[in-house]
Write a structure and sequence with these properties.
Number of strands of chain B: 2
Distance between the termini of chain B: 53 Å
Structural class of chain A: mainly alpha
Largest sheet of chain B: 2 strands, antiparallel
Distance between the termini of chain A: 19 Å
Number of strands of chain A: 4
Oligomer: heterodimer
Helix content of chain A: over 70%
Largest sheet of chain A: 2 strands, antiparallel
Shape of chain B: globular
Structural class of chain B: mainly alpha
Largest interface: A-B, 47 and 50 residues
Strand content of chain B: under 5%
Number of domains of chain B: 1
Order of helices and strands of chain A: HHHHHHHHEEEHHHHEHHHH
Number of helices of chain B: 11
Order of helices and strands of chain B: HHHHEEHHHHHHH
CATH class of the largest domain in chain A: Mainly Alpha
Strand order of the largest sheet of chain B: 1-2
Strand content of chain A: under 5%
Strand order of the largest sheet of chain A: 1-4
Radius of gyration of chain B: 19 Å
Number of helices of chain A: 16
Chain lengths: ~350, ~290
């Protein structure tokens, strides 16, 4: 009896390990190009899902800010754009290696993010949201006018990344994106399960109480903002190397709102939920709605359905899709148990 | 001197457009506790209605505008009836995402009904201008300025002196207490959504002749109106309007006298610094945080 059980117990224990889960998740996601070529499906799905991966990275940053620290930002698009332009300029114009671009991309926007974090000490809530919108608009106008670096309205182009002298193809770039996503998910998991996560939780609950317990508000707000901007900028850098262009009209208020929607629809403080939210907000229109016969060919209908979908999710599941998944899990477990009881 | 006057007059025109949109946002914020990101999209949609009534059905412009008002009222009622009154328990952040869903719906419906080609909407007064201490301003400009100011005076009269205005102010100050006192808060919210949609439509009709009518018509109006609300403070109805006119004036003056490239960024930077040092806005009271 004991020997028979040991195998499944070990497997179970390995499966319970969150890192293994993230790796498995990444493995499944990374298999997509192979899956598409085997089944002979349209390989352009890779572009959609790759976009979802990029937006998930950005949204994980915003989830750290909004979900864990309770600070709201509408500056995401600006920072993402900044990351993409720096990355594009460094690799396409200066022709420096990709690793250098990632370093610069994380460094420069993070400094600006820290400055915004200082602003957040004075204002909060809606005021903070629109103050960050101000920052985002300043950046977007700069992208339009500073055409020496950004190419102005016509935008900046870049190629697929070259890593250690190996030029990647579209499929390989996609796998690279998935690898980065898994690393970011693990990093986020570690950050929020440790001391910092507890400090952020306390801060969100009550600033005064957190301060009384010895949480340094200044330090953790700056860290939260720095991380959110770093994630956004990283996402931007990956964006320009995967979608291959970046122009100012992409980095508007509606992009920031979309990222915010990913976090809220997916569920605050849920890592997998964020990816699920990104799938709903960014991929459902292109992957599913546009492929439905007759309806899909009508102009703009996928937007309408997606808008209705988002509104419905928020009306019926205000805690986000993560809650829905948990509910379904609980339901399945209950049904299975019922089955067991009947068999006895 | 005449250039400055010219700039000021033009600023009053753009500032008026921002002010109309901002007033819609603030009314929704105060009565429904929602940051109304879809104000611009709704205005865009109803401006499309005006344009199509004018261009395709050949109605005179004033009648087409009235038609747009009607569609604005209907869309406002519908949104409140179908969505807003069913979301009492949703958190404020999630409510903002509902307006994002609205943006998606309106940007999807507009090309479906009205096509993807940009349309043109003429001015109320096509030609003619008047000299004014060396500054010239078109009849249409004067009309827009006067219409904006008159509308705002009318709205403030309604808000301060009439029964429905009292109901709106009561709901704005405390929704649940207002309901206990017998104020029909549901009707008030419904009325405010229709009002906000009408203000957005008017702003759209005013700005449309300057550009062409596309789904991006109101993007910059939306952003500037939101910033105007923060600059003026969310606690009063007149603060955002003050903020909107200041943004209009500041933008024109900085772009003309300082730098045509960096003027707007500079303005936003100044506003940002202002908010940092005075978080409650121009005319707001300081909010005291309670432990």
């Amino acid at each position: 009896m004991d020997k028979k059980l040991r195998g499944p117990v070990i497997i179970n224990r390995i499966y319970q390990n969150s890192y293994v889960r993230y790796l498995l998740f990444g493995l499944v996601l990374g298999m997509l190009p192979a899956f598409l070529s085997v089944t002979g499906m349209n390989s352009s799905y890779i572009v959609n899902i790759g976009g979802v991966v990029i937006y998930s990275i950005v949204a994980l940053g915003l989830n750290l800010l909004l979900g864990y620290s309770g600070l709201i930002s509408l500056g995401t698009a600006g920072f993402m754009g900044l990351g993409s332009y720096i990355a594009g300029y460094v690799t396409a114009t200066l022709e420096l290696p990709f690793a250098a671009c990632i370093l610069l991309v994380i460094l420069i926007p993070t400094l600006i993010g820290v400055l915004v974090g200082l602003v957040s000490l004075r204002i909060s809530g809606l005021y903070l949201a629109i103050a960050t919108l101000c920052v985002s608009e300043i950046l977007r106008k700069t992208f339009e006018e500073f055409d020496m670096f950004t190419g102005g309205f016509s935008g900046l182009k870049a190629k697929y990344p070259v890593i250690f002298g190996i030029g990647l193809s579209r499929e390989q770039t996609y796998v690279f994106l998935v690898v980065i996503l898994v690393l970011v998910m693990m990093l986020t998991h570690n950050l929020v399960s440790g001391q910092m996560g507890r400090a952020l939780h306390a801060m969100r609950g009550s600033e005064v109480a957190a301060q009384a317990m010895g949480v340094n508000i200044l330090k953790y707000r700056l860290i939260a903002f720095a991380l959110a901007t770093a994630y956004a900028a990283l996402g931007g850098a990956l964006y320009i190397h995967f979608i291959k262009y970046s122009y100012p009209a992409v980095w508007t208020l509606s992009m920031s709102l979309n990222i915010l929607a990913v976090v809220v629809v997916g569920g605050l403080r849920s890592i997998y939920g964020t990816v699920l939210g990104a799938l709903v907000v960014f991929a459902v229109p292109d992957l599913i709605l546009k492929r439905i016969p007759v309806i899909g060919s009508i102009n703009g209908i996928s937007y309408i359905f997606n808008g209705i979908l988002i509104i419905l999710i928020i009306m019926l599941y205000p805690q986000g899709l993560a809650k829905l998944v948990n509910d379904i899990k609980a339901l399945v477990v209950r049904l299975l148990r019922k089955g067991d009881v009947k068999r006895d | 001197m005449s250039t400055l006057l010219q700039l000021l007059l033009r600023s009053l025109e753009t500032g008026g457009i921002y002010a109309l949109a901002a007033l819609g946002i603030i009314i929704i914020y105060r009565t429904s506790n929602i940051t109304h990101f879809a104000q611009g999209s709704m205005g865009m949609f109803n401006t499309f209605v005006v344009t199509v009534l004018f261009a395709t059905f050949g109605l005179p412009l004033w009648l087409a505008t009235l038609g747009g008002m009607l569609s604005a009222i209907i869309s406002g009622f519908l949104i409140d009836f179908a969505i807003i009154r069913r979301t009492q328990k949703v958190s404020p952040v999630a409510k903002q995402i509902i307006t994002l869903g609205l943006i998606m719906i309106f940007t999807g419906v507009a090309p479906m009904l009205f096509g993807v080609d940009p349309l043109r909407l003429p001015k109320f007064f096509e030609a003619g201008s008047v000299e004014f201490f060396g500054a010239s301003i078109s009849y249409n400009g004067i009309f827009n300025i006067i219409l904006g100011v008159a509308l705002m005076l009318l709205l403030f009269y309604i808000l301060q002196k009439t029964k429905i205005g009292l109901a709106i102010r009561t709901t704005a100050s405390n929704e649940s207490t207002a309901r206990l006192m017998g104020v029909p808060t549901r009707k008030v919210t419904m009325f405010s959504w229709a009002l906000a949609a009408m203000l957005g439509c008017l702003a759209g009709v005013m700005i449309a002749p300057v550009t062409s009518v596309t789904i991006n018509l109101m993007d910059s109006v939306q952003v500037n109106a939101l910033i105007a609300c923060v600059l003026g403070g969310f606690q009063t109805f007149y603060g955002p309007i003050l903020g909107a006119y200041l943004i209009g004036i500041g933008k024109n003056i900085l772009v003309y006298y300082v730098s045509s490239v960096w003027g707007e960024q500079l303005l936003y930077l100044i506003i940002l610094l202002f908010i940092v040092f005075r978080p409650q806005g121009l005319v707001g009271r300081k909010i005291v945080k309670k432990v």
